[in-house]
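Here is one chain, start to finish.
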Amino acid sequence: MNTERQIMNCRTFDELLDVEYGESGTPKRNEFENDAQLFCLATTLKEERLKAGLTQQELAQRIGTKKTYISRLENGKADVQLNTLFRIFEGLGRRVTLTIS
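Its structure:
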């Protein structure tokens, strides 16, 4: 069955991901899921910064880093350590909670 037909026969999002990126746990699927999580984090960071009415430069100054680092985070081009993530959201007046499932 060709890929287009397989996609058309998908009933769930997980089935679609299986066709497009392989089953959960495969290298291609893991890469996709990591990229998706990074995109979500980057989008959330940018949205919260804009809600706070801050520029990238202002946020960087608040947390003691450089504007280029904030820009790279918002564009999904940099990894972030957990303690830095907490510091960033603290600088935005927000609180981060961690849920492990």
